[in-house]
Amino acid sequence: MSSDSAQQSPLSDFSSTPSSVDEDLQVYLKPEGEKIRLSLPRSTQRSGSTDWSEVWQQLKHRLNGSDRSWQPGTTVHLSAKDRLLDGRQLQAIADALEEVQLQLGRIDTSRRQTAVAAATAGYSVEQHSPIAPLSTSTSEAAPQWSQPLYLQTNVRSGVDVRHSGTVIILGDLNPGGTVIAAGDILIWGRLRGIAHAGAQGNRGCRIMALRMEPTQLRIADAVAKAPETPPAQVDPEVAYIAPQGIRLTKGIDFFKTHSFSAEEGGWTDL
């Protein structure tokens, strides 16, 4: 082992923020296995909430004031919480991380606009539901999905999009790209990557695409791979769970016999 590698501190030894810091009020960096989590303060309007300029100053202070004992190129997962970030702000964060040899790889957010900006910029993203009020009943029959996530972009190889509702993509899902949704997945283009609908166990969810050429389809706990020989005729298709497993049918035939029911929380027979 060289002297340089012997002096390299393990990632688990790195911490730029005291344990007493309130995660909702300040920017902080924390090692998590082989990655680093960068957490931003919440933007909820309340006493002590921070605006973007203060967040930016805190971020620069954290990065410049740390001991930088991470390995060059370490991936950073950004926890944006409910903070609204646009493409320019995400790029500024990525540039600041790159200056200290860190790489922005994933964004977690409860804001659809932030999720859209992240996916459009080519980052993996997970959009989850805001924290439900304490008064919300847990006995409701219908699944409490988030509002649909609309993406007007191609999901590129290496990009992972996760959402606690339905995902609608006006573009292609390319090989190496993944979309995971608690609800349905609708691809207004070519589906050539991995699509997982009903990820929280709803077997009534569907996957729809103008052109189905998937690497893998998943609905709840059911899995199907694409046929080795693509069909000679290409039509919009719908994937759904039948007694025999995941099946594909032409969209025009599916919608003759099925309709979506918000009350039932899924697709029902006509």
**What's the overall geometry?**
elongated
What is the H-and-E element order?
HEEHEHEHEEEEEEEEEEEEHEE
Quickly give the CATH architecture of the largest domain: 3 Solenoid
What is the number of helical segments per DSSP (H or I, 4+ residues)? Answer: 5
- The order of strands across the largest sheet is 1-2-3-4-5-7-9-11-13-14
**Overall pLDDT metric:** 81
The beta-strand count equals 18
Q: Could you give the distance between the termini?
A: 69 Å
What is the CATH third-level topology name of the largest domain?
Answer: Pectate Lyase C-like
Beta-strand percentage range: 25-35%
CATH class of the largest domain: Mainly Beta
Specify the helix fraction band.
Answer: 10-25%
Give a short account of the largest sheet: 10 strands, mixed
Please give the radius of gyration in angstroms.
21 Å
Parts with pLDDT < 50 across at least 5 consecutive residues: 1-20, 131-142
Domains (count): 2
Class from helix and strand fractions = alpha/beta
Explained architecture:
The chain has helices at residues 3-7, 52-65, 87-99, 112-120, 251-257, and strands at residues 28-32, 35-39, 74-81, 102-109, 124-127, 146-151, 160-163, 165-169, 178-181, 185-191, 194-197, 207-212, 216-219, 222-225, 237-242, 245-250, 258-261, 266-269. It is an alpha/beta fold and 270 residues long. The chain has two domains: 14-128, no CATH class; 140-263, Pectate Lyase C-like, CATH 2.160.20.70. It is elongated.
